[in-house]
Amino acid sequence: MNEHVDNHADVETFDLAPISLWLEDFSGVKHLFEKWRQSGVTDIRTYLREDEGRIRQCASLIRVLKVNKKTLALFEANDFNHLTGNLDSIFRDDMLQSHIQELSALWDGDAEFSSDTVNYTLTGRRLDIQLRGAVLPGYEDTWTRVLLSIEDVTEREDARRQQIESKRYAEGLFEYSPVSLWVEDFSRIKRLLDEVREQGITDFRVFTDVHPEFVGQCASEIRVVDVNNETLRLFLAPDKLTLLRRLPDIFRDGMNAHFREQLIELWNGNLFHQRETVNYALDGTERHVLLQFSVLPGHEQDWSLVQISLTDITARKKAEAYLEYLGKHDVLTKLYNRAFYVDELNRLERREFYPVSIIILDLNGLKVVNDQWGHGVGDALLRRVGEVLAGAVKPPCYAARIGGDEFAVLLPAIDELGAASMIDEIRSLIEINNQYYSNIPLNISIGWATSNIGEKMEAVAKRADLLMYEDKRSHYSSENERRNLD
User: Which UniProt keywords apply (predicted)?
Assistant: First the structure.
């Protein structure tokens, strides 16, 4: 570039150079600079930025003396006159601002300058270019010979822009994903597992049974690289720093058991796996999540980058739990329902519990209440029975509504004395309940039975049921006698 190129230079070398070359006369710019200095201009950059017309003025004073064949080809010009007659189509838009950099270098006394800018071919095609210029030796006082080279870097810049766009796209997918995303470094865990393998361990599950502390050690070696916006929302974190500081509040309780299963998957070479687990938001509420783990491509050898997605399935789990609840419970009384009662009878029989006591209860007078006061009042009576039985019966015993006004209590491993004690507790709670609802008191008929060795549960329930009906007949007989006396 510093080689002297003028009328005596090797014209063939200039013309056949594989890069675009321009020989230009900047003497008009030099004269203009001298006038500006005399008028008091000191900061050329600010001065040019204040008025774009000043940049245009400088550009208009530059005279193109010569270009080579590569220049004509690059800018799609037929000849020199075609090129120079349309310079305003080549140097436009972004070019003016980058021209400040070149002019400032000359103003500061530099004999060389460079810039990355944009030109356009005569057909309108955009060119990303790298421009370098130098005042040729011997012309430092006049700037009448300035050699410029223009390198077409469009392909490189397109690739760079594509890379930036791809990165922005990937970051957008990460940041605005509708599921919680975590990028983590598992490389230290990989080394720990490799060390265990080198010790000759083959059954990792047994190893972690014997050394549960190893799971905790691995968990402490996880390094969180980044999390996305949905992660902050899911765990109610105000920012990433707060989230990272409070990771022990998110991953706690039974997390070691779930993490152990992850480690076993990794030990077995499963770099992509998923499982359901429970985390906690920063306010302490549960977050049921579907965890999907994947070692990112290119990091299979060291696990230095893994992505974990957490899909919030809390609502689904609640719905499933409610459906399961409905399948086993009576909605009105909140006690277990008949389906659960039948299943539990079968389970007790299969497990050969002994003894098993069964209490059968029936609400007296429900039909009269429904007829006289309406079904809403009758439902309130049933709910009160549910409250009484829920207060008296605790696991492993169960209370269930097995018919419209009929209830059952299952007492595994409870003998006659235990059953009698339970009945006393129920009657006591009924008396207390009636003190609050004296206008319509609860009145219940009760029968109970305790299993004999080898007796079917159905037979025990039938005996209790028959005794309940005897109690009911006795109740209604007493009622009729009182009415007759009245």
Answer: Plasmid
Cα–Cα–Cα angle for 312, 315, 317, rounded to 5 degrees: 90
The pTM (predicted TM-score) of the whole model is 0.61
> Which has more confidence, 256 or 227?
227
Q: Give residue 454's pLDDT band: very low, low, confident or very high (50, 70, 90).
A: confident
